[in-house]
Amino acid sequence: MTTVEQAIFTSTSSITGQGYRVVASSPGLTAEDKGGIATCSPSHNSMCDESDSAIGLTFYGLRSGRTCVGRTFHAGCEQTGRGGKRVLTQAFVLSPAGLEEFGGNPFAVLRALDDNGAFVAEFTNEGALASVAVAPVGESDPERWSAACHLVGDEAMGYLLSRVMPEGRSIIVGLDDASTVVEALLLAMPVNLRIGCSFSIGLKFTLSRRLRLCVSGPVGNDTHRTIRGQKVVLVESLRPADLPEHELRPWQEMVVDCRRTGRLEHLRNLTRMSFDDTSDDAMDGIAERQMAVNHVTGVATADLIDAVLDPEPQGRNRVLDELNARYAAAATQELLARFACVPDDVLRAEWSTLLALAETNSAFMPLCLSLHERVGNLEPAPPFAVPDRDDDGSPAGSASGPISCLIGSEHGANS
Questions:
Q1: Is 182 helix (H, G, I), strand (E, B) or coil?
Q2: What is the rounded end-to-end Cα distance, in angstroms, of the chain?
Q3: How many CA atoms lie within 13 Å of 231's alpha carbon, on the beta-carbon side?
Q4: For residue 70, what is the DSSP state?
Q5: Element of type H or E holding 284
Q6: Secondary structure (DSSP) of 375-394
Q7: Which residue of 76, 243, 271, 357 lies most exposed, with the fewest beta carbons within 10 A?
Q8: What is the DSSP letter of 206?
Q9: Residue 87 contacts residue 47 (beta carbons within 8 Å)
Q10: Which residues are registered as beta bridge partners of 132?
């Protein structure tokens, strides 16, 4: 179970004060935490949607190193005499370890809290709140990324990712199903980068909330004046023709490629890994290697052979080391498939190369032995032993019959 501290930020008038402030909190929150919550929580007339059912979300880091996930809604009438609806934010605070249990995903945190019945529907009284113990829920299905791309398109998703991964501030206007899209953006990043992607959804933009991404409703002239000279990018349309001029880095290209090629599981496995180095150069190298894994079937045979005979050195970067191993394994499988079906005259010309591969990687030994038995005039003979045979003629311990079945009857007909 993960312990989540909480606070209520809203407007009230009482003997302890009036106006918008933190009016209730659990004992585990410090004064500094509550100050950070007060700075980032919305107040009067801050929500884009004025309906009673409107919901706003925030996600940001606190100076203590903890993280806050805020859920904002309308709770009755404004208490300050300004009229309109009172805005209430229930802020949930997690330790770094607690957030990591949810994969760094604030939407997973909210789902778990909802399942736990932790959301308040209205403000009742000031004072102390209890912390909440919740069990981490499973990660979202990787198809969430695909669904988000269908909502806005691959080009727009690549662009959005290019905006939220580096430092900067952006306002995105009129994004349908914003929670799905923003969660997809987070899931396309390594876990330890997600905390840096602070955001708000459904709240009007303000400079005081220094968040990386603000998903807002239509903006007026006041917002244009506010952001003038502030290095804030305003995107009012995600149609490809309307997107600001931009250049994708290899990571963003790789993420979109994983969706286009049906390799979303590869993306999820990659982002779950522990990234020691998230510099631009390191991320570029990792993304380029994942792209190579994605498209190994299109690599020239000579380059695949080089990857097996002369693999990349290990020890520079744990994630890159793992991807290099995956690429070598994919290259091995692709070469096995290619050598299994080449015509006999080509096989004779490449026989020495295949033997060299077998000397380097034992996965090639069964194929060499099988081809040597099937095809005549392959010299020299394999320098390794022929494995013992079971009664059916297959290698001892084999679960798939004779080795020749690895080649396939249609390939044998080509000899």
A1: helix
A2: 63
A3: 7
A4: E
A5: helix 280-294
A6: SSS--SPPSSPPPPB-TTSS
A7: 76
A8: -
A9: yes
A10: 4
Angle (CA) 357-359-364 rounded to 5° is 50
**Which residues on adjacent β-strands are paired with residue 68?**
60, 93
* Strand partners for 72: 56, 89
DSSP string, 254-281: HHHHHHHTT-HHHHHHHHTS--S--SHH
Task: Return the bridge partners of 10, or none.
Answer: 21
What confidence tens digit (pLDDT) does each residue in 239-270 have?
888 888 888 999 999 999 998 888 888 888 89
Give the distance, in angstroms, between the CA of residue 395 and the centroid of all CA atoms in the same chain: 43
CA angle centred on 322, ends 316 and 326, rounded to 5°: 135
Whether the link from the prior residue into 380 is cis, omega within 30° of 0, is: yes
Strand partners, 213: 170, 199
CA nearest neighbour of 194 among 41, 94, 61, 321? 61
The token pair that represents 151 in the structure block: 């909502």
pTM of the model: 0.83
- Rounded Cα distance, 322 and 301, in Å: 22
Q: Is 14 exposed, middle or buried (0-12, 13-18, 19+ CB in 10 A)?
A: exposed
Angle at the Cα of 362 (from 356 to 366), degrees rounded to 5?
Answer: 95
User: Could you tell me if 163 and 233 are in contact, meaning their C-beta atoms sit under 8 angstroms apart?
Assistant: yes
For 102, which DSSP code?
T
Continuous segment of H or E residues that includes residue 22: strand 17-25
* Strand 132-134, strand 169-173: pairing: unpaired
Please answer whether residues 38 and 126 qualify as being in contact, where contact means their C-beta atoms are separated by less than 8 angstroms: no
Q: What is the pLDDT of residues 347-405, one digit of tens each?
A: 999 999 999 999 999 999 999 999 998 887 788 888 875 555 555 544 454 433 333 33
Distance, CA of 113 to CA of 128 (rounded, Å): 19
- Domain ranges for the chain, please list them: 1-139, 140-273, 352-412
Cβ contact 255:161 at 8 Å: yes
CB 235 within 8 A of CB 181: no
- Rounded to whole angstroms, the Cα distance separating 348 from 285 reads 37
Radius of gyration for the alpha carbons in the chain, expressed in angstroms and rounded: 29
